[in-house]
């Protein structure tokens, strides 16, 4: 980059300072994880023993063990829960992208009778708290015979109002001249959507995919209600079974399970974010 | 139980295409697997193997010959053998009645109530639901449970210990089978009391030997003062580990600070304090906001202001040796043995106020009124609760108190300390939680009042607010 | 300019004629694209909302839906007088405003910093995003333990540095800010992410021009970058608002709305009504009221940000 190579001494100091701030951010945000990870390596009896006063034992396990990890997989079948979550999330993300991209395109490009009302309803849906509609949603899902199925876990979230909103925003930023050029070539609406608009929506699609993946992976209350079959239960509900204070929670195992559950998404995320940040957007495209 | 799968491993160098391909493949594999499970449930019916003790205490009509599924919703028990116990019994039952299939669903205890409510609201709840006995009156008042009197033997019902039978009954009819019984005792770390030369509470099997709450607090204060200047300080009293933990997490435990300040044969106000709710269960004013109850809460508050007990849930505090005393359910004894705690511990009777008080209640299974297979559900419950199966549960699997008198006689450990103390506490000072059709509301409202008081709210004023709030909530049932 | 206008005009005429020729296929395409979203929202969101609306006019127990009673607007009348509800609504607003005030500017600053590609960027980015992929319940459990009064991890650190320990979640003054901090820690990565995506779209030529004019540092961010990111800022604000209104898990796990209702927010209040007091009718009335209030607030927000968000 031309700018950074011409670094003046003042610029260098500023960059140092910037790095220092980033270091502080890293520490603040990783701190609870460090503690969680350290706790997952302690036997349950030791997890809270060394909390106060502060000592190295608070953070580093004095008697490290992988026992907690072994237990959650061998005794609690956590592998099965991970697989279930993975299936649900993959289906949820793919379908969400398909459904939201279509709707976002229509709302971003076309006016028709009732389109404003329809979009208004989408906006209303975006801020319905789940707790308001939990009971009727359960009834609907049961009527559709979707309880105890993977579909029951992802279908209700596939029409994601926030996703539609984000994609619509993004569609509006694609210059109209592109569609018009396509129209001159006689392209159908469908082809315009697939060949012209979609490729320009990649950052928005990634964002929506990410929201949907995170929401799907972290959902707790819904699978707790909608799934009876233990073989179909997902990770977050499985984790909750380790946190029952009245039953002397198995804290070491809880932290092990939480660490494992955070890992798959973190990996996908670290993998995608490079792609995300590295300028997918063609420069000069902004309208 | 669960087939174990290894988590998908990621090779170090993955291209995006290969990565997405792998995800897609996993998704497909999952869908195919799901389809396979869905089709594979039709197993051939084997010849029945009779149950050793028959269906006693079931007295209802003959069971159906049709193929049906009984669904069970229960809490997940903390130790694996306890969950396996159910699996084993269910297998035995279905071997005797091959046309009855059992679907056993477990949820964490904290989530049980919400899940049960939603299942009932959704219209097709499981046939059999486990609930904490305290909430049984609410299920009964809302027609969610089936009376069991015509289906279960009379002598079985009369054998149930009084507090639990009261709790599980309404208008003389039994609505839930008594799974187990819980009462309170004072567990303490004998090493700590010895180390700081503080007189320890009396080890006895007679609840009448209990210290008063004031006397107990004096000992806790002495402990606190003796430790001044120590680097690693112990709490005198461990916080509640029930529910979310800490103050306000369990009326079952903390409610005793209100009710033990009352007296069932005392003045009008003392009697009401003891009863904690009006006879019809719909009025709380004048019962939970009496001067006696406020005094009980002042006592409870002082435990926090004197820094004798922490203001939030501290997991495992007593077992880890970070708290000297623990007022907790009888299961603590067995748990301490299982965990091989690293100190000498002893058990004293629960301290006494004007009344010596412990809430006697426990979990119970009821048959949902929406169930289409009531006799079969009751028969399964009868089988789970027969003498042989209950004895195994209480003596080998979980170690909680039984909820039937005859079982105590057959368990030798109830003739020895500390279990004899538990039995005596149950017989002499255990009372059912307030029976109100708004049982859930009652406990939630009081829990939050107790929490606020523990954290500094003025007891009398806060209790009045809670009582007023409760009366508006309970008005629906008048 | 003129050629451009001419071309657009030509296109317009052309499209108009194609629209006449093939309106059916065009309409069909739009229908197919729109249908799944509409069906999904209608079945799983708006339908249930209508059901909640109907419930809000009845007295219904969660445990016995069959025994409900039509009460008209009685639930709403009760709601208007329920001080705890308005208190919880106030807490919700406080939380939303506090969160927006901290999270949006901080996220912008962090995004600008991360965009510089300094040393340590990759690690900081991973750290910021890690909370996003961690279960909300686990986050709440961990923070709860760190916030523990007297002897929690934070107090261990405070005590080690010789300061007096703090009550955090057990004090009505500190509880809401403590919950707010968890919320910001948990969500800010997402705002940073959207800002970063927005920054990608700012052409390098803009920065080059600014450099030539000697505009840099804070002034560059404030007077050049920020105005270019107005749309992005709007999206970030909108999403942060929606998520903040719905905050539930940390309250549920850490404070149960206490102490003394200090952290009771609208959603938690509604949850209490439905699942603790099994008062489904009243809970539905709360839900509907909250949705109306949020819609109003978002409309005001859109007006204030003067964007072209259309309802």
Automatic annotation (TrEMBL), chain A:
It is found in: Cell membrane. Residues 82-272 form the ABC transmembrane type-1 domain. Keywords: Cell membrane, Membrane, Transmembrane, Transmembrane helix, Transport. One of its GO terms (cellular component) is plasma membrane. GO terms for biological process: transmembrane transport. The keyword Zinc-finger does not apply. It is a multi-pass membrane protein. InterPro entries: MetI-like, MetI-like_sf. Its main location: membrane. The chain crosses the membrane at residues 20-38, 82-106, 118-138, 150-167, 204-225, 254-277. Belongs to the binding-protein-dependent transport system permease family. This is ABC-type glycerol-3-phosphate transport system permease component. It comes from Kribbella shirazensis. The lineage of its organism: Bacteria, Bacillati, Actinomycetota, Actinomycetes, Propionibacteriales.
UniProtKB/TrEMBL annotation, chain B:
This is Multiple sugar transport system substrate-binding protein. The keyword Transferase does not apply. Pfam families: SBP_bac_1 (PF01547). Residues 1-34 form the signal peptide. It comes from Kribbella shirazensis. It comes from the Bacteria. PANTHER family: ARABINOSE-BINDING PROTEIN-RELATED, DIACETYLCHITOBIOSE BINDING PROTEIN DASA. Gene3D superfamilies: Periplasmic binding protein-like II (3.40.190.10). InterPro entries: Bact_solute-bd_prot1, SBP, TAT_signal. Keywords: Signal, Sugar transport, Transport. The lineage of its organism: Bacteria, Bacillati, Actinomycetota, Actinomycetes, Propionibacteriales.
TrEMBL record, chain C:
CDD domains: TM_PBP2 (cd06261). GO terms for cellular component: plasma membrane. The chain crosses the membrane at residues 30-54, 93-114, 126-146, 228-248, 280-300. It comes from the Bacteria. The keyword Transmembrane helix applies. The keyword Transport applies. Residues 89-301 form the ABC transmembrane type-1 domain. It holds the Pfam family BPD_transp_1. Belongs to the binding-protein-dependent transport system permease family. This is ABC-type sugar transport system permease subunit. It comes from Kribbella shirazensis.
